Amino acid sequence: MDLALANKFDNILKENKVYTFANAEVKLSNVKYTSIKNEYCLNFNHNADIQEADDDESIQSQAFNFFNIKELLNQCGQKTVDFIGVAHSCMPAKEKQLKSGVTKSQRTVYLADESNLTIALCIWGDFANKFDLGPDEHPIVAIKRAQLSEFGGKSINSNEDSQIMINPKHKRTDQLQSWYRYLQDPSDLKCITMSKDKQDFPEEKKVVQFDNQRLIGEIMEALTCVLISGFQKMMIRLITWLALMRTVKEKSLKKVLDGDANTVIEHIKLATLHICQVLNLLMHLMLTSQIFISKKALLQWAYQQISLKILKIKETFKQLMIHFRIGNLENLG
């Protein structure tokens, strides 16, 4: 989306208003930039039509997909997450100078949940100065679109796109308040984040991490093109095959064809899962390693891994096509 288009939509869209959306392009979601559990996202271009609609109270003003701390422990690589927890303790605000030379306020708040663990939430900007708690104050803190970090253990960070809410109207607020109220000894809670006061982020790590994040975005775009190109050709063949099945009169043959078509679809789903695992591993290695790896080498490695997965799917199609004498895959890229 270009800047002019972004400004156009920015003038139209207002928070907590209801809109109708038309002429959007459906694309695969990038899990790095969203906490929504959906494989697809809507992309708006110059053909998009956005109109304000009448208010509808049945639509929630905020939709959350909360992780608990135990679930965050099992996440690899940088991800965008929603989290809610009890403010267990709060550190004083500090002024931090960024690489750009800009100074920003930063405060670390340790949040707890029923996992009997705590995790550090790093709040940046003006809200860091406003968020100051007394020793006996333990509000419920919810953050939407936080960035999960793995440096120094797990932690979550606010960014310009994050929303932080204190004691939100949500069932989890009541549950956490009740749990913390009857907690026998809050001092027994274990933290999964290294102390940010004892170990600050070294400048070298910041540089490597920034370069890796930018490189990951480029790699994801390149790999998405590879996936779409290969899968589109295979799905066209599958759709043609399924259309042919409708003309088959013998029920027994139709049943066999239908069963094998489902098998092929399952192969595609499994291959997609494996590809996602490869990408997650790639992200994890890049974000935790300080060794410089050339962009070309990374792209070649990732392309090779995905090509192997696509080759397996193509072989499955080939065997099924030969078995039913429907055609061949000579023209499949």
TrEMBL record:
Q: Where is the signal peptide?
A: none
- Major localisation: nucleus
A biological process from GO = DNA replication
Q: Please indicate if the UniProt record lists S-adenosyl-L-methionine as a keyword.
A: no
Name one molecular function that GO assigns to this entry.
Answer: DNA binding
Q: Which residues form the Replication protein A OB domain?
A: 69-167
* CC per GO annotation: nucleus
Q: Which UniProt keywords apply?
A: DNA replication, DNA-binding, Nucleus
- A UniProt-annotated Pfam family: REPA_OB_2
Q: Where in the cell is it found?
A: Nucleus
Transmembrane annotation, as ranges:
none
* Matching CDD domains: RPA1_DBD_B
Q: Does the keyword S-adenosyl-L-methionine apply?
A: no
List the protein's name: Replication protein a 70 kDa dna-binding subunit
Protein source organism: Stylonychia lemnae
